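subagent[fold] <- orchestrator: predict structure for attached chain, return tokens only, no commentary.
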Amino acid sequence: MIACFIEYEIDPYRVDAFEDYARRWGQAIPQAGAELYGYFAPYEGSATLAYGVYMIKDLAAYEAYRARLRNSPAGRENYEFARREGFIRRENRRFLRLASAPHAPLVLP
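subagent[fold] -> orchestrator:
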């Protein structure tokens, strides 16, 4: 499995639009075949950086997933929403593999 990290530069006055965009992907991405970890909006620090993170089997599966997402009504609608509203200034995708596993169980004090 590989993780896709999407880094967005967003308009700091349109965080609400990004959050709407993120909620829409919360439905569409899993339906297209990727395991969504989530979308993350600015909270503290930078007001212009946001992230999306999902897992996919490999790059071949990623290409098939992207085609399904692009061709789905929900995917097309969300891409159009982002284009029309213009709250995303830039986005970059990075594909990473997990290097820290296995993880110890969480221990709370």
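orchestrator: received. Logging for downstream: The CA atoms of residues 33 and 86 lie 27 Å apart. The mean pLDDT is 95.
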